[in-house]
Amino acid sequence: MDRRIETVAILACLLAAAGPALARGPRPVVRAAARHDTSPPLRLMRVPEVVSQAWEMPAPGGLPGRRPGVWPRIELPRLEAQVVEEETLEGMPLPLTSFEGVGNLNNRVPPDTVGAVGPHHVVEWVNLSYAVYDRQGSALYGPVPGNTLWSGFGGRCETSNAGDPVVLYDHLADRWLMSQLAFAWPHDFHQCIAVSATPDPTGPWHRYDFFFDADILNDYPKFAVWPDAYYLAVNQFEGASQEFRGQGALAFERDVMLAGGPARMIYFNLFGVNANYGGMLPSDLEGPIPPPPGSPNFFVEVDDDAWWPAKDQLSLWRFAVSWANPALSTFGVGGNPDAVLDLTAAGLPFDADLCGYIRGCLLQPGGSRLDALSDRLMWRLQYRNFGTHETLVVNHTVDVDGSDRAGVRWYEIRDPAGAPFVESGGTHAPDADSRWMASAALDGAGDLAIAYNVSSGTTFPSIRYAGRRPGDPPGLLSLAEATLVEGTGYQTSASRWGDYSTLVVDPTDDCTFWYFGEYHAAVSDWQWQTRFGSFRFEQCGQCPLLGRPALAVQGGAGGALLTWTAAANAQTYDVLVGGLGLLRSSGGDFAAATAGCGATRVPGPSANLAGPDPPPHEGVWYLVRGVASGCLGSLDDDSPSRIASRDTGIPASCP
Length: 655
Description:
By secondary structure, this protein is mainly β. It has two domains: 5-541, Neuraminidase (6 Propeller); 551-643, Immunoglobulin-like (Sandwich). 5% of the residues lie in helices and 42% in strands. Strands 1, 20, 21, 22, 23, 24, 25, 26, 27 and 28 form a ten-stranded mixed β-sheet that branches. The longest helix is centred in the first third of the chain and has 10 residues, at 9-18. The relative contact order is 0.13.
């Protein structure tokens, strides 16, 4: 594959020659939250009245160059089943869990299904309600209206329940982020953000109201977790005219928000740089290894050569934030991309035009045709650091063969901080059905999974997933798809579907995928349903042998400095602590002698452990264990690692 990269160095030089103002690009706008507070626990907060009124919500604004044409609403011939041969090695694993999610309590179309998973909870949010579940699918709280989070807060965030929800689990801090829009249409646009004050999403929340603009809508907001900020991409539209007003890129002061303090945002408006930019996603961190210190966040956009560029391409921007001096923050090269990946030259051209971008396009067995939303990348842009390389994974919907049959185009992008290139990519369309509204992610072992909707004139809208393993034939999701839930109904009149779905990786083992998506169990106008469930590649549980680090301890006043050599295959490390006297008296029973976890998921190879000196005639023992891809190294012998469990002689002290 030709991994050709077109950088914007020449463009930057041309802009510099044109004048300093153009070379400089947009200046960062810094704005403090309009208001903030910390809420009581959710169970003590007033629940607003549920508003239920049949309404097909306006479609996300059309992005530049791909506005819907004036197409007649005619019935096209139904497609007969026609199998397209694709090399299949074996099938995807069957679901581990499958639970019914939040339904259409507010009588809105579409649901905007989004969800996240933590060590003990699952949170799902749809238009316009959310719920908290345990990991066995039992509801712990809700469903309640989305603006319940801002009950008693005051201002637009309390009074408006405008949707476009986002839920993220911040595994770096063991906290949750939830956000939605608020406005008084067509004016006064806000981004409402809540960050949990504890690991429990039913507890108190740090709440924020960030004013966006008096007249410009911050449409289709998509957040991402990163060490130095919560990043956000929005498509901007004038409320009154609904004309496109460019791409917005924002960063929110994560460390301050985690503490509930008065936070700021940094905002770049790219409309004056290039009015064609739009539909970006920020990179959302998953996995135990954070990006290198000081790494910028990565924003990516896809463009069809029929829209405005001369080729099919992925463009990548680097968003570097300085909270110490926000004026030094930068987005791309003067607002233009840091790198452009030529998909045509890489052998990955595509056609994004499904039915001229009209809303009613994809077939069901009856009723209306469904919205393909093929003019943008689909949620999320997952980032993962494997230690040896950094990757981004993303997808979008394309016309497979010119017949308005939708397929899922996916990419794995390597080296986003250096010279980005498409390591692998392809279009998933194994038969005559349409597949769309997908979400993609890699697990800690490098397995790729993509979950999506499937529908046709003979297939009810359902949820399926497919995948590939490292080393599988390039360009293919070579593991045959499995079904999370089979639809048994369709949508009779409304065409809106989506507008997005969510695939995440479980932070407790870095192997299990959880998907949140839409389907229909009955024939109806509005009563869509959602389903969330999990699956895991079998080989992700086949852990590599993790070598034992050689440990050295240097005692000091009030603690100890531990240093160790790198363990083979380890990405991070756990440190367990116990009493030496108890270890001796128990005959070397580590289970009885373990006092607790001194440090967890340390990037290595050292840790400072604070604590009092042991009493006379006593001592402290330390054991360091390597961790990689959810696999835990053995502490006291060279036996193979175990997935999502501790050695039989050691209790689960570290989280």
